């Protein structure tokens, strides 16, 4: 079902900047040496200002998916993002591994991160992106209970928002779907994420990939959606510590210029895109 985009717009493009800073190393990878924390510091002190400047030059409003830990550690950078007119979305408490959480812990960490949003942003977030894009069986219910209207963690479509359904896994008899969630899902993809292609983690992720290959892949996704999915949405995921490195940033700016050069491209935060959705 297409979005009802503003007049003259045919494809929504969201840039989701995951402002993980220290938390991705601590939470997802259990790494907290000075070397890894310095990469998180680069994210906040170098990457964020570079991305804000880039977005300002091209009149792009983005969604910054930000763990609570980042808000507490780098509050001045979070305020800079908000003052620049961007959206802040929920992205975990400390980039925790969600599938490993028991139900009580998951709800406790959700309460903690929402309290951090209220303290540092002044409002509760409308949307959520799971750290490392994974859920438990109760995550969808937790999001619904806490008033979220959209999620951007799942991969059941590519260029069309949809209502995700819980799955009861069956082996010999096949899996069955439950009723659709009222949450609207803005689908993501590892193909449209800079981290696995670029970020080097010894023994974990090779990274160090070609910037030209990554941006050609993103351009191909844009071209397909622009030509074949009118009223659709392209959801890109970038990380300030990654995309703001010099060679990637130059390629990213060329990509933004290319997409902006197509009539009807609308760069917008996910909540603004959500507001164009109607069920009929």
TrEMBL record:
It comes from the Bacteria. Transmembrane segments: none annotated. Pfam families: Polysacc_deac_1. Residues 34-280 form the NodB homology domain. InterPro entries: Glyco_hydro/deAcase_b/a-brl, NODB_dom, PgdA-like. Gene3D superfamilies: Glycoside hydrolase/deacetylase. PANTHER family: POLYSACCHARIDE DEACETYLASE FAMILY PROTEIN (AFU_ORTHOLOGUE AFUA_6G05030). This is Polysaccharide deacetylase. It comes from Streptomyces hintoniae.
